[in-house]
Specification:
Bound molecules: 1,6-di-O-phosphono-beta-D-glucopyranose, magnesium ion
Oligomer: single chain
Shape: globular
Radius of gyration: 17 Å
Strand content: 5-15%
Number of helices: 9
Order of helices and strands: EHHHHHEHEHEHEEH
Strand order of the largest sheet: 3-2-1-4-5-6
Distance between the termini: 12 Å
Length: 220
């Protein structure tokens, strides 16, 4: 755990780390899949985690063996997003994953800088609904990047916004694309999940409650 001593910034993925929005993504994709007569399962949905909206649609169409024009793809992506955004209307603090709020507050008290590093273009809306946007020193989301995870851009921009070097940052991620992006950025990768599902991370935790219990990045 010695390498954690030099960490001055924590960069958090949103969906699957701080909040459980994956089920809403799934339901919206499922609705579109049903319309397109694509057999889309929860297992297939795992492949969409951490991946951009455009790439998610491409994966869905690949599963269904469907080819489409760019403009048709845009229509379907918008359709899915409208359904997803609609389901976010009822989202509130209760959707925060176990230990998230407590851990973010403890890091803040400890003087660790906090950034968001999410692929979602809906991140500002979600943070607002969860009432946690004031906890972040920097917010980097799908609106700020040109290259999706596993490209490290989102995390490198996060470190830059915190005025920190990559090696001074730790990333909390629940997707394989995100762990690969954190490694490519030269940051400590903390997987929220198992080694089996997320190989290549430096540490593994079940949720942020465990991070708090283990005093991860917190002085003991
Ligand atoms: P949107 P994260 C990701 O969020 C989701 O895991 C992924 O399933 C979704 O496709 C992506 O955001 C884009 O989301 O359609 O809202 O722009 O895990 O990077 O916080
Ligand atoms: Mg995620």
């Amino acid at each position: 755990m010695n390498e954690l001593k030099k960490i001055k910034g924590a960069i958090f993925d949103l969906d699957g780390v701080l909040v459980d929005t994956a089920k809403y993504h799934f339901l919206a994709w499922k609705k579109l899949a049903d319309k397109l007569k694509i057999n889309f399962t929860e297992k297939d949905n795992e492949r969409l985690k951490g991946v951009s909206r455009t790439r998610s649609l491409e994966i869905l169409l690949e599963i269904g063996g469907i080819t489409a024009t760019l403009s048709q793809k845009e229509i379907w992506a918008d359709e899915k997003n409208d359904l997803y955004v609609d389901s976010l209307k009822t989202l509130d603090e209760k959707a925060l994953l176990e230990g998230s709020l407590e851990y973010l507050n403890k890091l803040k008290d400890e003087g660790i800088f906090i950034a968001l590093g999410s692929a979602s273009k809906n991140a500002p809306l979600i943070l607002q609904q969860l009432k946690i946007e004031n906890l972040f020193d920097a917010i980097i989301d799908g609106n700020c990047v040109s290259k999706a995870k596993p490209d490290p851009e989102v995390f490198l921009k996060g470190a830059q916004a915190l005025k920190l070097k990559p090696f001074e940052c730790a990333v909390f991620e629940d997707s394989l694309a995100g762990i690969e992006a954190a490694n490519a950025a030269g940051m400590i990768a903390i997987a929220v999940g198992t080694k089996e599902n997320l190989p290549g991370a430096d540490f593994y935790i079940k949720n942020l409650k465990e991070a708090e219990e283990k005093m991860l990045l917190l002085d003991d």
